[in-house]
Amino acid sequence: IKAPLVVMSIPRIKNDNVVEKLDISVPANLLQAAIILISNWQNPNIEKSELTICDGVRSAHEVMLSLMKYLIIPFTPNESEGKEFSGAASAMHKNSTLRAVTVEEWVLLAKARTDFVAKHAALSAPDIFLP
After folding, report:
1. If we measure between CA atoms, which residue out of 103, 77, 65, 74 comes closest to residue 8?
2. How confident is the model at residue 80 (pLDDT cuts 50, 70, 90)?
3. What angle do CA 68, 69, 71 make, to 5 degrees?
């Protein structure tokens, strides 16, 4: 059975530190699995962590940081242009106007085991989900 596709935007940094928006398609169940993993990740020192690659191999911790960077932490290329969604906040079902991340999944992220994840999930949730 083929999973429905989700289209979302992620930031891409070029060689000259210019950031552009890149639209990608991923299976919906892969996005849902990443949300569950991120919400259950436990690491109290996550804010002080840095991404390092040793011999081309990343640890599980570094993979989780990358997932959070691209899916949860909001990215705005130019603050003066207003709020531009990226990652999970921009995820829409392909060929549809339906959001791919449900209210329940945003609540799951906002109740994450790590405060850093919960804070950024609350900040990046689309306004439509706020009371």
Report:
1. 74
2. very low
3. 60
